[in-house]
Structure formats: structure tokens, C-alpha cells
Amino acid sequence: MIPVMKDQAFRLLTLCGTFLFVAACATYQAAPLPEAETLASAPGPDLQQLKVRASELQHPLLGPLAIDLEDGISPDEAAVVAVLANPDLMALRDTHDEAAAQLVGAGLLPNPDFSGSLDHPYGSGSQGTVNAPTLGLSLDLSRLRGRAARVAAASASLDAVDLGIAWQEWQVAQSARLAVLRVAMLQRRISLLSEQLGSETETVNTLSGAVEEGDATISDLGIHQAAREGLLQQRTGLQREAAAARSRLLALLGLPPSSEIRARAPSDQLFSALPPSEELLKRAIHQRLDLRALELGYRAQEAAVREAISQQFPSISVGMTSAKNETALKFLGGFVSLGLPIFDRNQGEIAVQRATRSRLEHEYEARIASIRAETAGLLAQDRLLGSQLQQSREGIGRLAAIEKAESEGLRSGDVDRLRWQQLRSSLSELQQQELALLQARLELRVALETAIGGLRMTQEVEE
């Protein structure tokens, strides 16, 4: 009776094990790609959802923001929208799930190995004998030996991936902020050129009538006609730059090319004083997420080196066996299997992991050196642009006072239009130079803010 009960218990245990194995297995579900035509005609992100998500944004370098795109988009709004809606970032965030899956895999315990055999006696002398089954159950302990190091490596890698994603989000946010500033500044320069072009066109029309009446020479007309054509070409070039910058902005925001959006920039820009390069470098070291990601990557590699070294020791497997011989005599025992590391002591894997650790160390050192050179170079350029911008504004102030007096003389008939137009053209060129310098310094400040990793370099004054 007892053997029968043992037999039924074994069968029940086998059925339960089979059921649990099948229930825990993953099932395949097809996931075809969406149609390319559908993706190409997508309307873009929902504005209301963006407003809610922007007000609840949690990011190491970007805070929540209340966005309102009815009156245009500001640099800060563009930065937040880009983080939430940029298609490339949506794909990049999937790497978190990949790294998380690797962490799960690193912590799994090894599966036990089950073995079985059956010997059937036959031939002379086999009368009165029975089949001789042998069952075995074993577990490889070598897998347990490196588990802690693998989990530590996978955990550090996951944290490094998350910081890498956040750093890429910061890069995209800053690119969107830069694109808004560029579009807005180019529009200001185009508007100034249009005003200058209108003035030059009026002068050309006046000279055309004066030439017909003999009050002006064809040479004067040709000079101003050439100046007008030059202004047209300049405006066309700036319009092309603005169109390219607008396309870049829409792509960063995840909006269709046909979207109508106005870049809103401050009416004036107050540039805050910058600390010395040593202070900027110190802030960058503490604020840059990519440096923290590299540190975590190095920590993960340290764990990988430990895991590789632990695998040089003998592999050990333990198990138990249950057997019955042909005379129905039963046996119950255990065994230990020990691998002898005579030739392969994991030397190759250890060398690879150590070389990788050395490479990561040098990459970290190179990144620090690159940040130091970048911040020092940007700081030097900012000081130069600040000096040039100050000189340009002083020159504009002096020339604008003269132009104002000449303009009053033109209205009263005491000043010749040609002389005023030359003065006006010179003033407009200086104003164009000022806007170009202002745009260059704004873009440089964004680049410096990007390099530092979150330090605001400007104070914006809205219209």
C-alpha cells in the first residue's frame, strides 16, 4: 500500500510541477509595425495632454512648467515640450526596460538539472529481475557564486542607463531652446532688413524720378539699386536660415512640418556675470549627468571584474540520486561534481573585463578633460562677444543720434536724401551686426548652459 501511495504522490508532484512550469512560461504575441503612411500623417502630440504632463514633469535638470502656446513658444516651453514629445527620446526610453530586464536575469537562481535512466535486464539469468531505474537531481553552485556581483553590475548599469537617458533629454531640451532663440533672432534680423529694404526702395524710386528730371545721376541710382539688390539677397539668405531652424524646431518638438508655431523670444536679454572657469568646471563635475552615468558604468564594470575572477575557481555541482537495481534493491545517495581548473582558469574573460575597466577609466578622464577645455573655450568666447556687443551698442548710440538729427533735417528739406540714406544704411548695418552678435552670444550661453548641465546663464525679460 505504501509503495502505491508513493507512486501517486510522485505523479501528483510531477503534474503540479508541469502545471507551474507551463503557467510561468511566456507566450508569444505578434506585434507588427504600424503602417508607414499612418506614421507619416500623424497629427503630432495632443496639446492638452502636454500641458498636464509639463505641469507634472519630474526631471533632474528640468522643473515642471505651465505652458501656453497660444502666444507662441518660449525657449523654456520648447525645452519641456521637446522632452515630452520628441520621437527619438521615446525610443531611447525603451532602453530602460532592456536594462531592467537584464537586472531581472542577473538575479535569477540557476535551474536544477533532472536526469533519469532505465536499465532493462534481458538474456540468460534475467529471470526474476526487474527494470532498474535511476533518477538524479543536481544544482550547479558555480552560478550562485557570482550572483551578487552580477546583480550589482546590472543594478549599476540600470542606474547608468537612466542617467544617460536623462542626459540625452537635457541635450534635446537645450537643442529646442537653442532652435527657438535662433528662429526668433532670425525673425528680428529679417524684420530689420525689411525696414532697411523699404527705405532703400523708397530712395531708389525717388532717384528714378530725379534721373528722369535731370536732378540726379544714373551713377547715384545704380549705387542704391545695387544696395537694394544686396539687401534682397541678405534677406533671402536669412529667410532660408529661419526656415531651416523652424524645421529643426518642429522636428525636436515632434510636430508635423505643416504646424504653425511662432517662436517667442525676450525683447531684451540681460546676460548674467559668469564665474571663472575653475568654478564652472567644478559645477559641471557635480551637475553633469553623463559623468555620473560614467561613474556608475565604471562601478558596474568593477562588479563584472569581480564576477569574472570568481569564475576562475573550480565549478561545483551537487545532487542526489535515487536508483533501483535489477533485484529490486533500492539506493538513495548523493554526489558532488568538481571541475578542475587546470587549463582554463577564466584567464581570457578576466583579461577582457580588466581591459574594459581600464578603457572606462580613461574615458572618464578624457570626459573631464573635454569638459574643462569646452567650458574654458566657451567662457573666453563669451567675454569676447560681450566686449564686441558693448562696442557695437556704443557705436549704434552715437550714430543713431546723428541719424535722428539728419532725419529731422530731411523732413524740413535741409538735408539731402542721398546723404541721409547713406547714414541710414550705415546705421542699419551696425544694427544688423548687433543682432548677429546678440544671437551668437545667446547661442553660446545656451551651449555653455548645456555643457555645465543646468546652470542658467541668462535672465530673460519678456515683452
Notes on the protein architecture:
The protein has a domain of 319 residues: Up-down Bundle (Outer membrane efflux proteins (OEP)). With 463 residues, the chain is an alpha+beta fold. Helix 4 crosses helix 8 and helix 6 packs antiparallel against helix 8. It is elongated and about 140 Å long. It has 13 helices and 6 strands. The protein is 67% helix and 9% strand. The N terminus and C terminus are likely disordered. The termini are far apart. The strands form 2 sheets. It has a 4-stranded antiparallel β-sheet. The protein has a two-stranded antiparallel sheet with strand order 3-6.
The oligomeric state of the chains shown is: single chain
- Percent of sequence in beta strands: 5-15%
The CATH topology annotation of the domain at 43-120 and 133-180 and 260-338 and 348-461 reads as Outer membrane efflux proteins (OEP)
Spans of at least 5 consecutive residues with low confidence: 1-10, 458-463
Number of helices: 13
CATH superfamily of the domain at 43-120 and 133-180 and 260-338 and 348-461: Outer membrane efflux proteins (OEP)
Which class of the domain at 43-120 and 133-180 and 260-338 and 348-461 in CATH terms? Answer: Mainly Alpha
Overall form: elongated
Considering DSSP H and I runs of 4 or more, what fraction of the residues is helical? 55-70%
CATH architecture of the domain at 43-120 and 133-180 and 260-338 and 348-461: Up-down Bundle
Radius of gyration, whole Å: 38 Å
